[in-house]
Amino acid sequence: MNYLKEIFRGFWSLLVGMEVTIRYFFKKPVTVIYPRERLPIKRFKGPIAFVVDEKSKDHLCIACNACIKICPSRCMSLEIGKSAADGKRVLTDFKVNYMLCSLCSLCIDVCPTDALKHAEGDYDMVSLTQKELVMDLLEPFEKRGTPLTKIPLAPQTPAAAK
Ligand code: SF4
Ligand code: SF4
């Protein structure tokens, strides 16, 4: 009789120990098989992107360099040039290196024209090569390809960066 009691006790303690496992075994899983399935995530900071002006369908950057100076990760770069058509100063290149970006939002806060934002929907920034993570923010805009003469920027000194 004692022998049966011991078996029962052992079986019962096993059931108690496995209670959580058994309970979750019959519940719907809360995880998904990423990347085949993606969960909609509402609260996250996407990568830095240009705001598109509704009227002009262009970006709002005036190449003032404020974001470059404030970026603590030194991961932004821009180049300016002269338009061959009217000689006006135009942005010719704007890159952000996402391998270094900490998504701190300082560049967004400092921009005088509200030209930058966190892109929506893109929470899984992954890449097989480092090169792909150097993002060209001008790529979506038509102005690419305009004949331009590049104007070299003055080198940034540590004092100027503060
Ligand atoms: S979010 Fe922060 S780290 Fe990333 S580019 Fe802007 S200022 Fe630099
Ligand atoms: S702070 Fe704004 S306007 Fe100035 S360079 Fe950066 S994105 Fe362009």
Indicate the low-confidence ranges by residue numbers.
145-151
Shape: rod-shaped
What CATH first level would be assigned? Alpha Beta
Helix content: 10-25%
What's the topology here?
Layout lengths: L1 H16 L1 H7 L22 E3 L15 H5 L5 E8 L5 E9 L8 H5 L5 E3 L15 E3 L11 E4 L6 H4 L1
Antiparallel strand pairs: 1-4, 2-3, 2-6, 3-5
The site of one iron/sulfur cluster has 14 residues, from helix 4.
Q: Any descriptors?
A:
Alpha-Beta Plaits; rod-shaped; binds iron/sulfur cluster; 4-stranded antiparallel beta sheet; about 25% helix; single chain; alpha+beta
Short description:
The protein is rod-shaped, with a radius of gyration of 27 Å.
Question: Can you describe this structure?
Answer:
With 162 residues, the protein is an alpha+beta fold. The chain has one domain (48-161): Alpha-Beta Plaits. The protein contains five helices and six strands; from the N terminus they run ααβαββαβββα. It has a four-stranded antiparallel beta sheet with strand order 5-3-2-6, with no helix packed on it. A two-stranded antiparallel sheet has the order 1-4. The longest helix is centred in the N-terminal third of the chain and has 16 residues, at 2-17. The termini are far apart. Mean pLDDT is 84; it is low at 145-151. It binds iron/sulfur cluster (SF4) (2 copies). One iron/sulfur cluster binds at residues 48, 71-73, 75-76, 96, 101-107.
